[in-house]
Design brief:
Layout (H helix, E strand, L loop, with lengths): L14 H12 L23 H9 L11 H12 L12 E2 L3 E2 L1
Antiparallel strand pairs: 1-2
Helix pairs in contact: 1-3
């Protein structure tokens, strides 16, 4: 069958870096209107992602490695550290048989 490749996650030592990157992606001035490229977050979460939204609202880093919501926050941190970007639908060019180019 098809193989999958995995990269190890960033070390726990980069937790603060990941949270800083995530905060930068979410930052905008709430006292001003949201305007594309001028005042908007660079990371959005779909309204249907209720667990992720709840995790962002309740994560308490100071509770350590067993902190509530740490697992979903780790996923968000890894995404921020790896500088992941949106890939528009259809841009990966699926080919017959379900493969990818």
């Amino acid at each position: 069958g098809p193989s999958m490749e995995f990269e190890p996650a960033e070390s726990g030592a980069s937790e603060d870096d990941g949270l800083l990157q995530l905060n930068e992606l979410l930052a905008y001035d709430p006292t001003e209107p949201i305007a594309e490229l001028l005042n908007e977050p660079h990371f959005y979460i779909a309204a249907r992602c209720q667990n992720t939204i709840w995790a962002l609202q309740h994560y308490a880093k100071h509770d350590g490695p067993k902190a509530a919501c740490k697992d979903p926050m780790d996923d968000l941190r890894y995404m921020a550290l790896k500088k992941c970007q949106h890939v528009p639908q259809g841009s990966l060019g699926g080919i017959a048989g379900g493969g990818w180019r």
